[in-house]
Every structure is written in C-alpha cells, then in structure tokens.
Specification:
Blueprint lengths: L1 E3 L2 E3 L7 E3 L5 E2 L13 E2 L19 E7 L2 H13 L4 E5 L10 E6 L3 H16 L7 E2 L48 H14 L2 H7 E9 L7 E4 L1 H15 E14 L2 E12 L5 E13 L2 E9 L1 H8 L3
C-alpha cells in the first residue's frame, strides 16, 4: 500500500476520481465533491448527473440566498437537487441585466434544510471564520428567515424580527428631513467608488485621519501604514502608478456589526513587465463613527508576484 501526505492509499489502477454529479476531478482519497457534495467515483465510473429539481410555478416560496455571482447560486442549486430540494433561480426585483442580482428560492417546507445546506457551503468555501458573519440580504428580504418583506415593513411577518421603530424620531439636531446616516457597509462601498473615480477628497473623508492600514507582506508595497494621507500617497496612488487598469472588484459583502468584509479579486497589468494578473482577496474593515479606523488585507500575493517578475 502506498502512502501520500493524507496517509495510506488503497491499491487502484487510477490516480484521480471524479464527482458523480458535476464531473470535477479530485485526488483518489476524496470521497465527496468539494463543490456540490456528491459522491466521487473512479474515472469512467458511470457519472450520473443529478436531476435538477424545479419548483411549481404556484409554489409558496422563500428566498434562501441572493448574490451577484450566478456561478455560486447555480452550485447551490446543484446541492439542493442532490438532497431532493426543488429550487428556482430568478433575477431579484429591482435588478437588471446591467446590474444583475440573483435569488434562489425553495418551498417553505424545505426552507430550514436549504438554509442549513447554504450555510454549510459558505463555511466550506470561506472557512469557519465566516460562520460569525451575517450576509447582507437583498432588498425586501428578511436577513434572518429570508421571507419577502412588504414595502415599508417595520417587522417581518415570518419571524417577527423588528426592522425599524415606526415611532422613532430623529435625534436632537437631526431635524432635516433629508438627513441620513450612512451605514458602515455604505461607507466602505463609497471608498471603492471613490477609488474607481479617483476622488481623493472622498477617500480622505472616509478614512480616519489616524487609520491603521495593514497589507500582506509580498503584496506591492506591503506592510503597515498609519494615517489617511499616508495611505493615499503610499498605497492608492502608488498602485495607480505601477499598474495599468488596477481594480479591486468586490463580488460579495459580509456584515459583522462594526466590521465589514469585502471578498473579491484584484485585476491589473504590471506596467514594468506587461504581465496581467487576477488574484483573490479578502478585505476586513473596522469602523467608528462612520469612518474606517483599521484595515487588514488577505490576498493571493503569489499571483501578483508572478506578474511583477521579469522573464
């Protein structure tokens, strides 16, 4: 019997296995597909695609997840099908082909099982640290039970969650009807918009004057920086100088109270080498009084380093 880093490997005449549902390939010791949860089989071992369970048009449904990433939603639908849960994918109300937002719904009777499968998939893909993060629900959807909310609702009819106090009054000094306070999520989103537009004044307004900015070692100009002006000049402006088309595109937002997490990918072309790259990242922000006071970066620095290396 041979050994690999996972332990004993049974004798066999194949060096990989495939998912019986989606066809993904894995090392022989893997018994369940990491992507969809189906059993793995030897290559050529009779892959049978799980039938796609669909909902009746008049079914009473609950939206389990909303996301801009259609691939993620479709992978979740495959997992539901494997467990016999019919589902339906639709464009969320208010989204468009230019700014799509997809929802996957199941019958109310399957909501609890579907939600557990959804959370398991989140932990598998994002790690255990994601378990304590509450995902931002799409507009009109309860963040707890995922039930649809009527316009202007102050309480969820599904689970009783209080969404707003209908009798609440503006705090003293906030009597202007047009006055609104940005949420922590909106503050962080405004930073990405300011970076995209090159709005330096807004960047400095979003960052606390003494913000602590921590980047991965191995990332261009990685290290720690203190102060909004320093971050602007030593991080943002330098990236713009060294990279053509530098972009930090966010595909998923996670809310954790006073913290906000952005998951996405960097894209750009190193001006010195002419090499392009795409590298995954996780950005973690801490905020106080609607300003960013701390930032930590986690990124695939190996792909960025490859683009910076001379041939």
């Amino acid at each position: 019997m041979e050994l690999d880093k996972y332990g004993p490997v049974p004798a066999q005449n194949y060096d990989y296995v495939v998912c019986s549902n989606c066809g993904a390939e894995f090392q022989p010791h893997v018994t369940r597909c990491i992507d969809c949860g189906a059993a793995t089989v030897p290559p050529g071992g009779g892959r049978q695609k799980a039938p796609r369970e669909t909902l009746a048009p008049d079914a009473d449904v609950i939206a389990i997840r909303g996301d801009r990433d259609l691939e993620w939603i479709e992978a979740l639908q495959k997992r539901f099908s494997i467990h016999g849960i019919p589902s339906r994918i639709e464009m969320a109300e208010g989204s468009s082909s230019h700014h799509p937002f997809y929802e996957i719904s199941v019958a109310k009777r399957d909501a609890r099982s579907a939600y557990e499968l959804d959370q398991k998939m989140v932990r598998e893909r994002l790690g255990d640290e994601a378990a304590g993060l509450a995902e931002i629900s799409p507009p009109g959807v309860c963040p707890v039970c995922k039930a649809r909310l009527s316009p202007g609702a102050v309480e969820c009819r599904g689970c009783g969650l209080v969404l707003a106090d209908a009798d609440a009054e503006l705090a003293e000094g906030d009597e202007d009807d047009d006055y609104t306070v940005m949420s922590n999520l909106e503050v962080v989103q405004s930073l990405y918009k300011a970076l995209q537009d090159g709005d330096e004044d807004l960047i400095l307004g979003v960052l606390h004057p003494e913000v602590e900015w921590i980047q991965n070692e191995g990332f261009p100009d990685g290290g720690s920086y203190v102060g909004a002006e320093t971050v602007l000049s030593e991080v943002f402006l330098r990236l713009a100088e060294d990279w053509d088309g530098w972009e930090a595109g966010v595909g998923r937002w996670l809310n954790a109270g006073d913290s906000v997490v952005a998951l996405g990918a960097y894209r750009g072309t190193c001006r010195r080498t002419g090499k392009s790259m795409q590298a995954a990242f996780a950005h973690v922000y801490w905020l106080e009084k609607s300003r960013i006071v701390r930032f930590e970066q986690y990124a695939d620095t190996a792909k960025i380093a490859e683009a910076c290396e001379d041939d």
